[in-house]
Amino acid sequence: MTPVSRRRVLQGGAAAATTVVGPAFTGFGGLVHATPRGTLPDIAWDELARGLDGTLIRPEDDGYNEWGHPQNLRYNARRPAGVVVCHTARDVRTAILWARRTGIHLIARSGGHSYGGYSATRGLLVDLSQLNEVRLNHEAGTVTVGAGARNSGVYTALQPHNVAFSVGRCPTVGISGLTLGGGFGFSSRKLGLTADALEHTTVVTAAGNSLVCDETRHPDLFWACRGGGGGNFGINTEFTFRTTPVDTVAIYQLDWDWQDTPAAFAAVQALVEKAPNAFSCRIGGGSAGRTRPGIRAGRKVSALGQFFGTADDLRDLLAPVLRAARPKRVLIENQTFWQAKDFFYHSVPNDRYAVTSSYLDRPLPERGVRTFMEAIDDWPGSSNPDGAGIALFAWCGAIADVGPRDTAFIHRTARFLLATETTWAEQDHAALVAANLRWLRELSHALDAYGNGQAYQNFIDPALRDWRRAYYGANYPRLAQVKRTYDPGNFFHFAQSVDG
Prior knowledge:
This protein is 27% helix and 22% strand. By secondary structure, the protein is α+β, with helices and mostly antiparallel strands. Strands 17-14-16-15-19-20-18 form a 7-stranded antiparallel β-sheet. Strands 7-8-12-10-11 form a 5-stranded antiparallel β-sheet.
């Protein structure tokens, strides 16, 4: 939808007011002042609208429901007082400086897929989705991507040129949050993380400065932008990535009966331990949505992945798995890199959901597999067809070729990433939602015994207590120093943001 332009006629005292989240409003351009209760009058919003190349959308405007809601509807009540739909990087600067003067809370949104709802606010939402241009530099072997581009848009632009870098599986995830939190997909064991391909990025700071960051220009901020998480140090408006030529790959999908889950996990993990970097894998199990507990239909376990090689070589590689845990369905075939991308595309859950994560330094043992199988049988159920389950992603490979301190992303040497998820829908009653969240916490706590204490910052979890250590480990003090340097007033903040 094309945003509806908002140009309101000022009508003196008839203007509505919006509560400021932050310091009291002390005047905008000398025109208006806050009421004693700290509210922000329309005259200030209209001043912001006039300064934009893009569009300001308020709750009463057409299009607000489209632009104002978060991707995870669990946080649907957290609606913004205004949305700046940026058409230029200058709009980002304008919004930041205006928010600083008014004291309103500001959050930037690229794809809006923050699992913890941190790309939602009751203040000012800066939407970057229209900054989605993708420009390829053939001579340099790089691609420059606007901060609002989605995975699907990036790969659509790269496909005619048969070059790529590693991006995620979900087509609607924004490149900005993906990169800033590390970013992985089915190419990462071969090509590295999304952040590992980053050559330079442009960041607008709280002071309104637009900084180009790379290994020589603001190298500390560049370091932080590769795994330090989104929303911490400024608003990135553009990224330039190094690309790699791609051609034909082989893909696979193996499905087993539920009772074969322990054998399947054991065989697949044993293969991952010795597989080449060209091989990627996700194995997972769970239940489709159901309306009440005790129903065991819809349980499933499957593995899928990509191999930078031929289907014949992939079949040889998978032979031990096929012997040890005979699947009920086997798909192994050659595809172009771009066909494989389409095959793997899978959106994050719909409606409402919660996710936890942990990194494992060794395979999940059989007792851990049986723990999650028993939990699936006891899942409270919900009306969301996405259901609940776990996913285990093969790690290391090229990810481990970069040192844990070389970028802000510290999770380099783990063997696996484990994600646990539950979903529900709007019509599910509060007691069922609470039961789902309790179920997730109990399962996560039980599986934490097999992890190394770390968690993936792009699967951000608002209930994670020791999140500084889990997301950033020994890199957190350096991130805090970068924060003090580039955002000393902690303008960019949310519940789990880096603080100085």
